[in-house]
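Chapter review: from sequence to fold.
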Amino acid sequence: MASLNDNFNELLKRIRAGRELTHASYEPIYYLVFPPADILTVKRELPAWSARLRNDGWEVHVFSMAEHILTLLQEAKLRPFWLNADQKAPLEWGKTNQALSNYLANGNLQARLETALADLEGNEKALLLITDLEALHPYLRIGAIEAQLQGKFKVTTILLYPGERTGKTRLKFLGFYPEDGNYRSVHVGG
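The token string follows.
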């Protein structure tokens, strides 16, 4: 089994080669798939990987799902209602998660990612590095967001994906969700 760094090296080779036009997509989307047990290791490697990308001539822009989800939930007009409901029934996690999932699925998170992509469009050296995908659990899957943004990925985009690869285009988010084959991206590792 290849190491994280071996997989990252393979990812760099694939990025240098670029995407070819296929039936699925030609958008420059790459997933670095790694076991969920390696989430902390990936976070420790992130500064070194970002430096390697910069040394390769890329302008690295980081989009942290965790930071954007936190900001969205903190700024939500519904937040006082959520907090009140949580105080009344603190053990109703199913209802809490459903309310937060509904809010995040309404397009706010997707809009933030779309804005980040649009801001970088036209910059051939820009690279968007999407981190902290585990923060999407239990609310969303990145495949659904990627599908909604089809045609919007004009800059090279790397997603650090904690999960398992079960085929050329199939991934299992966090290793326990049902496999999903709706990805139009290049997958390395897993």
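Two observations follow directly from the output. The chain has a mean pLDDT of 87. The two ends are 9 Å apart (CA to CA).
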